[in-house]
Amino acid sequence: xxxxxxxxxxxxxxxxxxxxxxxxxxxxxxxxxxxxxxxxxxxxxxxxxxxxxxxxxxxxxxxxxxxxxxxxxxxxxxxxxxxxxxxxxxxxxxxxxxxxxxxxxxxxxxxxxxxxxxxxxxxxxxxxxxxxxxxxxxxxxxxxxxxxxxxxxxxxxxxxxxxxxxxxxxxxxxxxxxxxxxxxxxxxxxxxxxxxxxxxxxxxxxxxxxxxxxxxxxxxxxxxxxxxxxxxxxxxxxxxxxxxxxxxxxxxxxxxxxxxxxxxxxxx
Length: 268
Known about the structure:
By secondary structure, this protein is an alpha/beta fold. The chain is built from six helices and eleven strands.
């Protein structure tokens, strides 16, 4: 069979090459933007292992606290935010990364439920919507002073801070939250975290909101309450396996910091 050679003018060839090159570069750029950049983050260095940590218990259950909403907000069940996906996804990370015995289903308890005393860790989400009765405030105070630990997450801005501070003052009228510096033990209880970073929600961080990690300690210096204001650890945990949520915030900080918190809560 006779081969037929197709000849194009040099100008056409160079133009075609240029167009193809532009298409390739554009496609490659879109792929880089839309694909998770696995090399863009590194897990913090693990500096301790479970065998060397003096745990009070090696059994962990994620306990979410159910509360009533303040009349100053329109919420009905803000305590349910991210439930149960965040609780279960984070519990799976705790199990796989620490080797602790983990209840992967988690629990929901009322603030004043006597069963809360059986669990060293409790979690409150959207605390800027929370209202506590006098009985709930006393029960939460007794739980914390008796060795419990509370993580407060996902509330934003000064208005929500004021609502949370009002509820907190009923629990601890004589104790004020203080900023936690990165040299605090909780930043090095399992992973070494040399810096703090804001954990954004699925819609991103809110502009102008300064992230704060604050705490309240007992008379012996044991941290009882960790307050994550202008952060959303719950979203980072819930979407840890979703490619669109940045790994630098989930596995780069929110999960390791969460494991540090659990390690601290179960060993102090």
